[in-house]
Write a structure and sequence with these properties.
This protein has one domain. The chain is 67% helix and 0% strand. The protein contains seven helices and no strands.
Length: 163
Amino acid sequence: MKHLTFLLFFMGCILQASAQDIFNTVLEDSKKVINDTTSNVLVAKIAQFKYTTLQYIKKKSFESKEDVTKEFLDNQAYYMTEFLSTFFKTTLLNTSLTKNEKKSRIMSFIDASGSNPLFEETETDIVNAYVESDESQLTPFSINTDWPKAYAAIRSVLDKEKK
């Protein structure tokens, strides 16, 4: 529990960056955590997901678009961070959920990620590597996700659950 609380703090620090620097800040902070041998294993796994996802988005964006804006990249990084933060707060750290409710909530997040691809991708084994790995994966989401759309989708699901 302490590790996940630290993780949320780490994610919150990233959001302190100015809107113009979000993509690079998340990318650089993730790389620092990955390369820090003293990093907590859980935090390092999440940082690896962020780093891999942002590198994928950047690479695919420049391959498929002539003009990739900083705003586009920043929005993807910001909403990915929001999505992950919401996942940890409302699902993994939520002690009021039953085991079945937690499984259902996890599936809702996985669906929100998988149902909102950013690019037309034929190599699904690559983009779903985190989804299809073992059950201990902290970030079971597709790296080919349109994060603003996925975040809006999961907010809609969570808002319906509140009613």
